[in-house]
Structures
1.
Amino acid sequence: MTAPVSPAETAAASDPVSTPRRGLMRWPFEFAFREERFFLVLSVFIGIFSALAVVSFRLAIDCSRLRLLGPGLTPSGLSVILAPSLAGIVVAILVLHVFPTVRGSGVNQTKAALYIYNGYIPLRTGVGKFITSALAIGAGHSLGPEDPSLQIGASLASALGRRLKLSREKLRLLAPVGAAAGLAAAFNAPISAVLFVIEEVIGRWSAGILGSVVLSAISSVVVMRWFLGSEPMFRIPAVQLIRPQELLAYAALGIVGGVAALVFARGIGFLRPRLKGLPRWTQYLQPAIAGLLIGLIGYVGFPQVMGAGYEYIDEAMRGQFTWKMLAILAVLKILATTLSFVSGTPGGMFAPTLFIGAMLGGAVGHVERIVFPYLTGSVGTYCLVGMGVLFAGFLRAPMTSVFMVLEVSGNYSIIVPVIVANTLSYVVSRALQPVPIFDLLTRQDGLELPSLEEQREETILRVEDAMHAPVGPVLEADETVEHANQRVQHSSDNIFLVRLNPTGWTTVSRDTLARFKGEGKAELSLGTALPSQLLPCLYPDQPLEAALRHVHEAPLLPVVHRAEFSRLEGVISEQDVLNRYKLVEREE
Amino acid sequence: MATAPPVSKPTAQREALVSLVLSALAIAAFAAVLGLTTRFHSWQASLAERMYGRGEHDLQTGRAAAAIEDFRSALAFDRDNPLYQFRLAQALEAEGRFDEAESYLINLWEHQPQNGMVNVQLARLAAHRQSTNRALRYYHNAIYGIWDSNPDENRRAARFELIEFLLKQKARTQVQSELIAMEAGLPSDPQLHLKVAELFLEIDDYANALAQFRQALQLDRKNVQATAGAGEAAFDLGRYRTAVRYLESAVAGNQKDEVSSKKLKTARLILESNPFQRSVSLAQRKRRVENAYKAASTHLNTCMQGRSASASPSPAESPVEKLYNQETTLKRKLRGRALDDLDFLENVMDFVFEVEEQTADCGSPTALDEALLLIGRNREGAER
């Protein structure tokens, strides 16, 4: 990345006295290496434990649903109203008195643990999330199990790290490792889990943690599949994009999905702080009232909106709802999920997002097929694309949304429509709602956490933005001190770059040249007269931050061509870098 | 909120120990979750069976809508169960929700493309949608597919269904092919031979029909239905002696069988009236020709009277009018000429047959008229 050989390294390498010190210095490196290796092993264990916890969580949700709403796929009778209402009261008491940190989905809390609390998530949070989410989702609250699974995995990982007394740095990294494992197990989708954790939890691309996150996600999925099977979540008929014009139909779905995501996000963003601002006693009732309203929706004929709703997504994909029913379900699910979420009921937004997307996709697909009968895509295909569309628009995780669709369906032939629709949905949503939902929730909670979307929008400054052409002459290694002295006479600069042979650069000052001449070295070549210390070289495309690390090493650094180190593209100094940053500040 | 944990100095031994402890914990947790999932899955399986049982009951009592909910609930617990999917598809079909039914069936078919039951169900859906090619494909898949029980019977039933479908489509050649394919593998069951024979009759393949009726009779000599069918097939083939023999047995076995009685009378009349029979004497032949001529002449006159009363006069001479004019000439010839000339007898009979053919739909033909019409249509057969 930087210099072929730095002056310090050259000095150290030529220092014969340094050998015993190297032995002493090696110990921390070996230590670090061992901890690194152990961290990878630990990631696998975290994956296993998270998967076991998530499998138990899934069983708990199913069990609570069967007990509270009965074994019928479509719950009926008074239990539809009573179960979510009474569960709401119990959940409220638990959240307010026993597990105060389990409100919400769990994604932001995990991110906050990573950036604010050094990766510390109490095990109690995980246990509380397990109990309250299982009860709420099982009773019919319109929430999903994925985000809580993410937090359960993260809290397990954090607890394990603390128990093993890992370093603060490693402990901080464990939370996303556990989060990825939890999400992967809940979603049966390791790639999406890894991407989501990078996009939404870590909030930046970090190669250092990628290996551990992947390992934990994979081991988690392997264990989960051992218990719950490896079938994809949804099965859709084979997709064939016969006419490229059909992409327009998917593009239309992308736009509709972007608008729906906006409505959903605005609803939550508007209601959540208002309900949170109500007196504390109302918080005992909020989940119950939300449950009552959702129960009423179920009671009047739309029980599909209750719970996570995966069974109904599958049914929608089989074309078992009319377009009107699909549209109604999409609208009601937005309402039900908003109610559940803003009331502070613990539970995730993944499943509802997929549900709304599937119903919306199915409805749009149906209508498009009525208007344009030549369209060949099945309703199932539109449902699937719709899921990705809302995921991209609402959760604002475009990469995850694409891979999520591919993974949950096991169907890679759908990739082109998914990319088209998701991109449009993301663009529409971002244009109309600049702050993504997770960032919005974080800010409402009074926190400021890094976001990948912000990073994407940030202007990246590069070395080429700050460098300038050399003012004085560039000296060559084979020219004599006398000749060099003559060349620099007419220059106003005091420091000059010297091109060494075969490659490499160094600097020489006007005073040094004069001193060499005074010492009788006028006929020596610069290469012989100057000490063999090389300057670090920079490349024009490197981020400006990279230059910052080196500009203090010399008053002037060469910026060279990547394919030809002896070709000078420009020079950069500490002042140049600072000036560029100041300019950006002024522009902003 | 959090306090920074003290930095550890893990050693190789400590790492190994920690790994061992974690492995032991993982195994213990694994076993615990395995116990939980096993219990939960068996509970789910029992619930699925309960819901399936309810669905079966609902379906049998004609409550298809309730059955759909039950089967769906059963599938929520065991979503890959092909039986639940199949029964759900049937319930959906019973409710007229063909698209949904097809979706489940297609899913089943993708997993088991040779499953006979699934193919038959898909074929029925295709037949309902008048999609002949798809119906044919699925029916053939079912006929050559895999059946869990009674494969021969099920394959035969599928072929019978296909034949019924093809008959509705009036695809007689395809029906004939299917029947010929089927007759080769029929077991020794007179009812099956009878059914196939009747289907052959339906597509006017009298020879194969007669062969199948005979097969049925070989297995059950007293089968009146087969006897009547054989008589009918022989009659339609123009093999009147054979027909008489079978029809006599049929009428004797079931005196209420009016169709066979009528055909028997006609067959007998044909045998009695046919002047071309080899065994008849010249005198008999002459008498038969005279009787035939008289009957044809009467039928022609009745027909002409009826026409002149009802029809508007047309400038062109109709075939019946032409025959009427010929009849006048022929009558004169007959008066002045003996019927010893065999060629002349042939000419008279040609005239008779032509009259019966042209007046078949005219007036009320007598039994002899009908017999003469059939003799004319099948001269060679009438001799047998």
2.
Amino acid sequence: MRSLYELPAFVVSRKIQDQEISAEEYISIIIERIKEVDSKVNSFTSLNFEGALTMSRAIDKKIKEGINTGLLTGIPVGIKDNISVQGLKNTCASRMLSEYVSPYDATVVSKIKEQGGIIIGKLNMDEFGMGTTSEYSSFGPVRNPWDLEYVAGGSSGGSAASVASLQIPLSLGSDTGGSIRCPSSFCSVIGIKPTYGSVSRSGLISYSNSLEQIGPIARTIYDLVPILNVISGEDPKDNTTVHKKYDYQLNTIDNLLTKKYKVGVLNEFIDDSEIEVARTSQKKVKQLEDYGWEIEDTRIPLADYALASYYVIATAEASSNLSRYDNLRYGYEGSPEGYEWNSYFSESRSKFGDEVKLRILLGSYVLSAGYFGKYYAKAQTIRSMIKREFDILFNKYDILLLPTMPVLPFKLGEKISQPIEQYNLDVYTILANLAGLTAISIPAGLSEKGFPIGVQLIANAFDEQKLIDAAVMLERAEGFEKWIPRI
Amino acid sequence: MAMGTDIKKLCALAKLEIPEQNIAEISGKVKEVLLMFDKLDEFTTEGFEIKSTEDLKFERAFENLRDDRPRPTLESSGKTRPKLKLKNTKDGYVLGPRI
């Protein structure tokens, strides 16, 4: 018999609402699981066990009183450590914010709580979301549950690894250039980057505000859709959110077989990937073809310029967003007494990690007067043209398919001192961020040595439903929710 | 760019303190990334007409913007109270560092 922590969230939530088990009992099991496993994976930065137990008792009381407790009743949710949770530390995995406790909840956190979700803790990440491996963390690297000597992907490495290692069924991450999809691919879980403007960013500590988006990670699409419905929606606190109805459905296979979506396959990306990644991606194409969906090869001509454009824009926004960290309004213990103002400002920021410093320097450089036109203005022009290319593609196709990552997970430390090698790994994921589109990483298979491989689907803005439909089909074809690392 | 002296200027611009022994390493990394950024030089916008607002769709008219409602400041108590780290205050104001 499977333990409760192995079951999908939607199954356990039903059991709690039917009073087969109590929320407190379930949370106690989850706490034991985290205590047993996380010392190996290092996916949490702080834990909220007492708070979670208190919340679970309140939910049990409501259920006994016949009060509706919501879509996420009794389900523990982990939150990436750059999303604010009232009363918990919000460090962004940085020494700069090591003592900062958030005085308020991010909108997505409030919504999860309103729907009966229980915040179990904060999750490890690359410092301020800057990284592809979750090694740039002041809490130490997140380890891949499939092999603890390998990277978990990043920057939401803790969010993916905690779900993959059966510590929690659901988590939130943030995705600036693939930070949800990359670790989802490396850990064999399902993660979606919603359309820019469909999920509130209020309470997310900004790194690159025109690119980033909060999104959920789960083991199965049946768990992912309820939390996506909960967190999506217009928010008066974030005026980039769009007013529209968000009601994603889990359609039946029979219904989906009649939909006949048209899929554009980005073959250049598949061919440029490691052989096992390419082979697995082609297998996914074949599965969709077998379902009767129309398949056609296509390409994005401006993709060659995407990586440079992305990093120019991301570093420029990072240098601006991180200029607020002067250690006066929030930060660590320290006194400016006796310092000249600029000296204090510079010294206090020495607690940023090396990668964050590098990106601030690059951002300051590309925004400086002599280079603005050469880098930033040009990058923005290319960005708008890439968006236009996607518009043309989505007039023809419902979904685009490509690998999530060009490589398999690699060893911890292997690429840590090589920024360009790491940046190049983002080449397939940054496209959706540049164009503000929605994209999902779905487990596609395991390599010969047992490392996860993910396939990525991109859809037009606000077409999340198409990605969900495709995920249901692919999950049915493989049953990937049953692939579990031995840890 | 990315020689030691340039990096020091850039650090001053970015208000970052980099230890002297790390200047060479960070210079190398900055130089490497800027070479990657130079890919943009190969791109020319000639022949392309940029219509940046063409694709914008407004679901609501501008005159129908939301009403801003002032809200009281967040209550701060117990664990969530922002800590006051500065020792020197006068008349409710924080005294800044000497210049």
